[in-house]
Structure formats: C-alpha cells, structure tokens
Amino acid sequence: MALALPASVEVLAPATSANLGPGFDSLGLALQLYNRFSVVEGGVDPLLPEIEVLGPLGSGLERGADNLFFRAFATLFERQGEPLPAVRIRMQIHIPPGCGLGSSATAVIGGLVAANEWLRKREKAVSRDDLLDLAVEMEAGNHPDNVAPALLGGLVATTMMNGKVHAIKTPFPEALKAIIFTPTFPMDTVAGRGLLPASYTRTDVTFNTGRVALLLSALQMGKYEVIGEAMQDRLHQPYRQTLFPAMDSIIQAAKNAGAYGACLSGGGSSLIALASTRFSEILRAMQLTAREHGVEGTGRVLRADQNGARVLQTPRTRIRKEDSARYGDQFCWSPARPGAGKENMQSHATLVPEIAALLSAIQLRCVECSALYPPVEAQSSSATGLVPRYRCECGGVLDVELEFTLPKQVGMQGDEESWHLMERASNASAVGALWRQVFDERASSPPIWSISTDKLLLDYSGVWRYRELILPAPERYVITRPEGNTNLYPVGMENCPVGRIGHRQIGTYAGLELFFLKHEGENPSGSFKDRGMTAGVTMANMLGASAVACASTGNTSASLAAYAAQAGMRSIVFLPAGNVAAGKLAQTMAYGATTVQIEGDFDAAMQLVEQVCNELGIYLLNSLNPFRVEGQKAIGFELLQQLDWQAPDWLILPAGNLGNISAIGKAFRQAYDLSLITQIPRIAAIQAAGANPFYQSYQQQFQKRVSVKAYTVASAIKIGNPVSYARARAVIEACDGIVAQVTDEEILAAKEIIDRSGIGCEPASAATLAGAHKLVAEGVIKRDERVVGILTGNLLKDNVTGIPQQRNSAVVKPNLDAVRAMLVQ
Ligand SMILES: Nc1ncnc2c1ncn2[C@@H]1O[C@H](COP(=O)(O)OP(=O)(O)OP(=O)(O)O)[C@@H](O)[C@H]1O
Ligand SMILES: N[C@@H](CCO)C(=O)O
User: Which of 56, 222, 593, 632 could be disulfide-bonded to 663 (CB atoms 3.0-4.6 Å)?
Assistant: First the structure.
C-alpha cells in the first residue's frame, strides 16, 4: 500500500543573467542555479500564508502577504477569478537576492507557474504567453529580460510590443560556462535604474545595437573570440559603475585570465564572465582583483539552464509497507541512538546527538539541478523512520557539501589567540599552510599499538587523516583497516633512481621524464575502492545499517565485503555473471558476502541493486552513494601530500564508472580552494576503446550523453553507462582535462611493462600507462611535464588476463643438470 501524497505543487526556477552587456532590458540567459518553491494546501487564512525560508541567503526575504512569490501566486488566482486556497509555502533559496541573478524573477515565475499548475486541476490554467505578460507586469512592466529566460530557459531575446512580451529562445552553446562573482553587497534594481539617463546619444545607441547583433551572431556561429568586444555596453553599466567602482577592474581581470568577455549581470552586483576553459583561474582572478579593491564575494561556475522553470514530479521509489514489514528486521538499519527501543525507530531525532549534529551540517547537492537535500530524511512509511538519499528527484546524482573547520592542533596549544587570528586570516596562503601542517603532523605519527588510541589509528589512515575534508565522523563509529598510504613510485626517466632499471622502463615507455605511479592496488583489499568504502561503511555504521549492498565488476564487492565484515554487517553484492575476475570473486566470497550473479552486464546489475536497496531498505554503497566519492577524494589529497603539496601538471587514470575522476577532481578543486596547492592539475581520463561512452561524449563536446554495450579485457572498466557521468564531465571541463581511449592490445602491452618492472597491476590499471604512452606520443602531454598516473588494482586480482601462463615456467627433475639445461635454453 503506497501512501497518498499531500496536495501540493513544487517548482524549480532558474537564476538568470539579464542584459549580457549590450542587451539592456532585452537579452537574458538562464543558469543552472535554482530556487525551489513548494506550496501545500493548509493553514487558516488565504491572505496570510505561512512562509518558511530555507537557506541563509533568504533570511531577509519578506515572510507575509507582501512576499513576491505569494503575490505572484495570488495574482493568477485573482486573474482567473478562482478562490485562493490557504497555503503553506516553503522556499529553498540558493540565489542571492538583489545581486543581479534574477532572484525576483524566480519568485515571480515560481509563483505564477505554481498557481498555474494548481489551476490546471480546475481547468483554469493559462498559456505560457499569458504567464509571461503577467510576469512582466509584476516586474514593473518594463523589463522582460529576467522573467523570460526564467520561464523558458536558454538564451532569450525579448522585447515589449504594444504591452505584450515577445520572446525568442535560442539554445546557449554547451561549450560555454558562466563564471559568476557575487560581491557581498546587493544592488537594488529599481534604485540602479534610477541612475540611468532619460535619453542617449545616437553614438551610444548604435554602439550598443551593433554589439547586440554581434553577440548573438558570435554565440550562434561559435565565434567566441569576438565576445569580449560584443559584451561592451554604454547604456547602463557606466552609470551603475558609480555604485560599484571596482566593476571594470574585475571585468578586465576575468578577460586577462582567459574569459572571452565579461559584464555586469542584470542590475548587479554580480559580474558574469563567459569562457570555455580555465574556469577556476578566471574565478580566482576575479576574486583576487575584487579583494585588492576591498570587495569580498563568492564565486560560482555555472552552465546555462536550457529548460526554464519546471514543476517537479516525485518519482522516488516509496517503500511498500508490506515489503518493509517483511524484510525490515532482516535488513533495515536501526539508527544509532541512545537506547535501542523500537519506540524510537520513527524519528531522525532519535540519532545520538553527535551523529544528528554531523548529518545536519551536511547537504547533498544535485549535480544536474543544484537542488539540496539532507543526507537522510525522516519518513514515517519506512520501517525505521529513516530514508537515505542517493538521487535527486530530477534523477541527478548528488554531491556532498560540507563546511570545513580547521582543527586546533596539539602543537599549537597555549597560542590560542594566534590560532584564531590565523584561522580568520584573509591571507589565503597562511590558511593553506595551517591545513598542510595539520595533515603533515598526522602523517608523521605512525601508531604504536601498545598505547594506540582510535585517534592515532585515524591519523594513520590515508583517508581519515583528511577527515575534516571528507567526513568528520565521531571516532568510535569509524570503520577503518586503516587504508591508504599507498606508494607513489618515481618511474620517470629523470626522477627514477638509476639503479631501478625495471621502474625506469615505465618512464621510458611513457616517454616521460618526471613520472610517478600511485599504486592504489596496495590498499587492504587490493584496490582503490577501500578509500570510498571506509567512508561509506562508516556512514552505514552511523545510521545503524545491518545490511549493505552494491553492484560491482569485482573490486567494489571485495572491498564492501571486507569492510562490512569488519563492521559486523551483512553484505550483498550483485555481479555480472561470468564477468568478474576470479581473484575478486574469491575475495568477496571469503569475506562472507552474499553474491547475486546477474545474467546481464554491470549496467543491468547497477539498475537492479538501486531498486532492491530502495525497496528493501538496504544501505546502497555503489559510487552513486555520495559518501563513497568523498572517501575516494583521499587519493588526491594523499598524492598531493606525498609531493609536498606541489601539484603535478597532469593526473592520468583509467575511466569506467567515473567515480574516481569525480572524487579526485573534487579533491584537487578543494585543495586549491583551501590554498593547499596553487594550481589544479589537468586530468586525463583513459577509457578502453570497447567501453568508451565517456570518450564518445567528450568527442562531441559533451553535447550528448552516450551509452554503449561494453566490451574489454579490462573488466574493472567494462562499463557502458557510467553512474558518475555528470560529476566527471564537470571535473573534466573545470580542469581543462581530456578523455582518451586505448585498445585492449595497448592495455595489455602496458600491463606487461608494469608487471615486468616488478610493480604489477590488474589490466584496467594499465590503461593509465597505455594512455600516457599515447598522449605523450601525440604531443598532448609534454615530455618534461610532471605527471602522476593511478594504478587502481592489484596484480593478483586477475591472475589470467595478460599474465603468461606457460612461459618461464617448466617442471624439471630435481637435480642441477636438469636446471642448468633448462636455464640455458
Ligand atoms: N524567493 C523570493 N521570494 C520573495 N521575494 C523575493 C525572492 N527573491 C527575491 N525577492 C524579492 O526581490 C528583491 C530583489 O530583486 P532585484 O530585482 O533587486 O534583484 P534580483 O532579482 O536578484 O536581480 P536582477 O533583477 O538584477 O537580476 C528582493 O529584495 C525581494 O524583495
Ligand atoms: N534589464 C534589467 C535587469 C535587472 O532586472 C536592468 O538592467 O535593470
């Protein structure tokens, strides 16, 4: 029996950037940053809505009948002659109000679209054109350039004709992103318009008309090099500059750092730059220049929203009562809480306070639409009262957001004052130095078992050493081997010690002078998966899960089984039958997992496990689980620390389900933001040619998501429809990365080099060296650049593929002559 949903409507409305320089009151672009509004029938007085605003950005918004969203909602009911219901409104505000990103347009459009959806059930809905006219009326009747893109999405050219709005939407080029700098101060649109002159000279008007024409054509024809000139304006920016004197310098800094063009966004105070690469450098340049002028602010890198405002559906699988009753005792988690009485099972609030506090500090943001969720939600229909979130309601994958808090170090006791001063220092490099010191001190204290404490064990783990940046879990809940601390082998022609002839062969084969291989196969269960699994199983432990599950090509299942066994949980793994290397299967079964072999490929197993976990209340630990990705970030932090925080030029790694790229890319980005490093490495993702959906998308500038029927000898990356596509795409775009493909023959040739060097790896890992070899030969990676390659799994995982089965092995009689005869052959 599924529960009935309450009468409600939920709308997502995108941010917009109006004007785009010369298109004053007539051009606007929708952006992938959203305010989310839900309206539920309830309350007493239709004219006095109950308004709840979530998120600190909305703290100053009106809460009563004069709230703009409510006014728009009520206006449409009035226009249609329908009685207004009493409602409760909830707003999740992600767009800073009054900062030139169309927050007021989201309120107007959101209110109208929500009302229209409500009226649809009464057959009183109006057309989109009518909604637009009404929206412009509500925005003082004179500028449609925010509300039109908020409703329609994309790039919109719009004007008023005889009191009616005319709007034409064109798709915005996928290759371009908007880099937005938002100062801490708002600029009121009405006040800003008051500064504009009543008339303009012909020179100024033709200056602008020519540039609008140029801008639209340049965007349409991909002639981005003229955007800088085309985004100039003489109709509003020069007048608004008096409210924001640093504006021109910041715009110039963005262009100097690689943006095609930049301008004031809407009525300000945000500035928008357009670029196809170097996003973080551009943002950093804008922030630094602003700071030089005494202006602080926040930065965002956003894609264009191509859809406009939309009514949200609720497709999430609901747990059927009979199923949770049937399986609840066997699988479901019972939240970690003081006292284990069943009476406490129905509420999130029954978690022990330290876990409840941790969870409330974490938000999950949708990679596709930016919607925010708590990591677990209370749901009375579930047997336990708790439901973890793995996906957004739009279907997108979720990313953990957590504010980082610098811990106080033992070595700094007694100097509390200077600690606080440093902590608040505006000098970013000083803060970076503090973080480095925290991690370096932890790395230098290996545990001594006789006096070991949990904390020392955590410091020694190559994941939990960075816990403030991953998951600041209370120590007693952490499930750790400990993992990480994997070797970083110097194998380049220059940086490999002369005597290590075998290792040097690797650098010679790649054609690289400064080359390192980080062997993640040296983790406890033999693959990089342990990094994510320690974080994922720790989260399962905090939630009191009794069963965990995943779909796997082998490494994930072995790792899950090992960590679940340590935590005393049941593990269930879904494997593509006949497609898992023997070593991995043996490990998984030895650790005690229930193995479900699917007659299908990994992608089929993945689909199934998600359904099963949702239905049966089992905690899902595929990389769809955002905490797994957080743990895997530690690969990035650890390799940076091993290089004394000198970021390499390139990171090369095999690409299958794309969780690793997502995680390491995120780690690099965060390390850069914390000033742990001063440059973000470029990432080269290497796919097997027979399992290359990401490569195919990349070849089409990511205009289309591709999936394939996968085939490759590298079974760990034999994936045709990668779960972390959206996350990985964002990483590749943000770091100016590339995606390449290598054939199975190239993979096996590279594997032989790595194996014969004495290091050894599983077939998928060798894609890294095969990729390096190819990219250096093609001149993409320069011979003298500093490169780190990731080996993902241990040689013993697959003891058949690419391993000589007969050569070098013979049975001889047990005497010297027989051995001599054999060796001189
Ligand atoms: N979610 C909301 N609910 C209700 N009112 C809102 C909401 N968001 C914005 N507003 C109203 O809109 C005002 C800001 O409008 P303003 O036009 O100055 O800025 P903007 O829309 O953010 O920027 P721009 O129009 O330049 O892109 C807020 O002060 C508030 O009154
Ligand atoms: N075109 C408008 C956009 C702000 O809403 C202006 O510049 O005032």
Answer: 632
